[in-house]
Amino acid sequence: MANPIFRQKLESGKFFIVPGIQDMIAAVIANKVGFDLVYGTGYWLTASAWGLPDAGIATYTEMRNRMETLVRTSNAAVIADADTGYGGLLNVHHTVKGYEASGVTAIQFEDQEFPKKCGHTPFKRLIPLEDMVEKIKVAIDARSDENLVVIARSDARASEGMDGMLRRLEAYSKAGADVLFPEALTSEEEMRRACAELDKPCMANMSNGGKSPVPNASVLEEIGYAYAIYPSLTSLVACTAMEKALRNLKDNGVGEPEGIFDFNEFCSLIGFEDVWDFEKKWAPAPAPVN
Description:
ICL/PEPM, Pyrv/PenolPyrv_kinase-like_dom, Pyrv_kinase-like_dom_sf, oxo-acid-lyase activity, Carboxyvinyl-carboxyphosphonate phosphorylmutase
């Protein structure tokens, strides 16, 4: 069942922040910090699991498995990136049913051709507006839980400009999308225009190093966004920390740098205490010593 907290937050009208999660280590750290919602990012879950680019290479089955694992690991409700729905209308229907059964709280579709490209990289190609409208209608019809939020993303800014992108998102809204996702906007002015002209809650994609500026969350709230996702933050921060530690190891032989995360605490976060409790209860008694 979808967690109703996402709809409740949208209805409250109060801006909120959603971190991106690239693997289950990030998921347990997010559990420690405490978030109500997390974002299952297609780009970074693909990169962490298979070392592959976000270019439609990972399959529906692989990505559903990753999302299901994230739902199991995370204490928060999961917003799931479902790319294009992995094909045509029947694929979208199947994806909604599968992701919903996996326990996600929201599912996000985009208007690119299949296979897709990362929204902040070149060579994106769009499907016709009418085809995406049909995908949204199928997604709405396929869900069995009304708490499941359907998010419609448009990548049209690069090829059709702001007017074309807004026209598409208006159509997706009429088709029944709950949240609108104007991707890869290039300025705060464009962000303000999107939030002002669209009639459904809008989300901001704060992709570090991408096409869009990354202002403080207070600015995004003032602009009018309902919420913001930060899909690349934990991944890029982790890359920086890992490179620094590995260079220090290679150059200086330092295997225990300052500030390293406590191993015993991580054991607790990942669930070893439950394993130890099980062993205490069920492990056979040691053989007597003669």
